Amino acid sequence: MSPEIAWFSAARLAEYHAARHGDREAALRLHCWNTEISSAFYEALQFVEVGLRNAVHHRLQEQLGRVDWWSTLTLHHAGADMIATVEDKLDRFKTSWTPDDVVARLPFGFWVALFGPA
To answer: Which of 10, 53, 81, 86 is surrounded by the most beta carbons within 10 Å?
Structure first.
Protein backbone atom coordinates (compact mmCIF):
# COMPACT_ATOMS: atom_id res chain seq x y z
CA MET A 1 0.00 0.00 0.00
CA SER A 2 1.42 3.36 -0.94
CA PRO A 3 2.00 5.89 1.91
CA GLU A 4 -0.76 8.32 0.85
CA ILE A 5 -3.31 5.52 0.94
CA ALA A 6 -2.61 5.13 4.65
CA TRP A 7 -3.88 8.70 5.06
CA PHE A 8 -6.22 9.03 2.11
CA SER A 9 -8.35 6.44 0.40
CA ALA A 10 -7.85 5.74 -3.28
CA ALA A 11 -11.36 7.11 -3.85
CA ARG A 12 -10.42 10.37 -2.11
CA LEU A 13 -7.39 10.88 -4.33
CA ALA A 14 -8.90 9.56 -7.58
CA GLU A 15 -9.79 13.00 -8.96
CA TYR A 16 -6.37 14.34 -8.07
CA HIS A 17 -4.65 11.35 -9.71
CA ALA A 18 -6.76 11.84 -12.83
CA ALA A 19 -5.97 15.56 -12.93
CA ARG A 20 -2.26 14.77 -12.66
CA HIS A 21 -2.37 11.83 -15.08
CA GLY A 22 -1.60 9.25 -12.40
CA ASP A 23 1.38 11.08 -10.90
CA ARG A 24 0.93 10.29 -7.20
CA GLU A 25 3.28 12.94 -5.91
CA ALA A 26 1.66 15.64 -8.07
CA ALA A 27 -1.77 14.41 -6.95
CA LEU A 28 -0.79 14.80 -3.29
CA ARG A 29 0.58 18.29 -3.96
CA LEU A 30 -2.68 19.20 -5.68
CA HIS A 31 -4.65 17.88 -2.71
CA CYS A 32 -2.53 19.99 -0.34
CA TRP A 33 -3.00 23.05 -2.56
CA ASN A 34 -6.77 22.48 -2.50
CA THR A 35 -6.64 22.34 1.31
CA GLU A 36 -4.68 25.62 1.44
CA ILE A 37 -7.18 27.34 -0.87
CA SER A 38 -10.09 26.06 1.21
CA SER A 39 -8.41 27.35 4.37
CA ALA A 40 -7.94 30.77 2.82
CA PHE A 41 -11.69 31.05 2.16
CA TYR A 42 -12.77 29.73 5.56
CA GLU A 43 -12.40 32.98 7.52
CA ALA A 44 -14.33 35.05 4.98
CA LEU A 45 -17.07 32.43 4.71
CA GLN A 46 -17.37 32.29 8.49
CA PHE A 47 -17.93 36.07 8.66
CA VAL A 48 -20.51 35.91 5.87
CA GLU A 49 -22.34 33.07 7.60
CA VAL A 50 -22.46 34.85 10.97
CA GLY A 51 -23.51 38.15 9.41
CA LEU A 52 -26.21 36.52 7.31
CA ARG A 53 -27.51 34.44 10.21
CA ASN A 54 -27.76 37.47 12.49
CA ALA A 55 -29.39 39.65 9.81
CA VAL A 56 -32.03 36.98 9.15
CA HIS A 57 -32.57 36.48 12.88
CA HIS A 58 -33.15 40.20 13.49
CA ARG A 59 -35.39 40.60 10.46
CA LEU A 60 -37.55 37.62 11.43
CA GLN A 61 -37.83 38.98 14.97
CA GLU A 62 -39.13 42.25 13.52
CA GLN A 63 -41.48 40.60 11.03
CA LEU A 64 -42.96 38.03 13.41
CA GLY A 65 -42.81 40.12 16.59
CA ARG A 66 -41.08 37.39 18.61
CA VAL A 67 -37.52 36.76 19.67
CA ASP A 68 -38.15 33.03 19.23
CA TRP A 69 -39.58 33.49 15.72
CA TRP A 70 -39.03 29.82 14.86
CA SER A 71 -41.83 28.95 17.28
CA THR A 72 -44.33 30.60 14.93
CA LEU A 73 -43.15 28.92 11.73
CA THR A 74 -43.88 25.51 10.31
CA LEU A 75 -40.33 24.33 9.80
CA HIS A 76 -39.16 21.46 7.65
CA HIS A 77 -38.53 18.49 9.95
CA ALA A 78 -34.75 18.89 9.54
CA GLY A 79 -34.90 22.50 10.73
CA ALA A 80 -37.25 21.65 13.60
CA ASP A 81 -34.93 18.84 14.67
CA MET A 82 -31.95 21.21 14.68
CA ILE A 83 -33.82 23.71 16.86
CA ALA A 84 -34.82 20.94 19.27
CA THR A 85 -31.25 19.62 19.44
CA VAL A 86 -29.84 23.08 20.22
CA GLU A 87 -32.50 23.78 22.85
CA ASP A 88 -31.91 20.38 24.50
CA LYS A 89 -28.16 21.05 24.69
CA LEU A 90 -28.75 24.52 26.10
CA ASP A 91 -31.12 23.07 28.72
CA ARG A 92 -28.43 20.59 29.78
CA PHE A 93 -25.49 22.98 29.91
CA LYS A 94 -26.87 26.42 30.78
CA THR A 95 -29.13 27.44 33.63
CA SER A 96 -30.72 30.11 31.49
CA TRP A 97 -30.45 30.94 27.82
CA THR A 98 -31.92 33.30 25.24
CA PRO A 99 -33.05 32.97 21.64
CA ASP A 100 -29.72 34.57 20.67
CA ASP A 101 -28.02 31.53 22.23
CA VAL A 102 -30.13 29.27 20.02
CA VAL A 103 -29.31 31.21 16.86
CA ALA A 104 -25.59 31.27 17.68
CA ARG A 105 -25.53 27.47 17.92
CA LEU A 106 -27.62 26.59 14.89
CA PRO A 107 -25.58 24.93 12.15
CA PHE A 108 -25.43 26.36 8.65
CA GLY A 109 -27.67 23.50 7.54
CA PHE A 110 -30.53 25.05 9.51
CA TRP A 111 -30.43 28.19 7.37
CA VAL A 112 -30.25 26.08 4.23
CA ALA A 113 -33.32 24.14 5.41
CA LEU A 114 -35.09 27.39 6.33
CA PHE A 115 -34.72 28.82 2.82
CA GLY A 116 -34.66 25.57 0.90
CA PRO A 117 -37.58 23.61 -0.49
CA ALA A 118 -39.93 22.24 2.16
So the answer is: 86
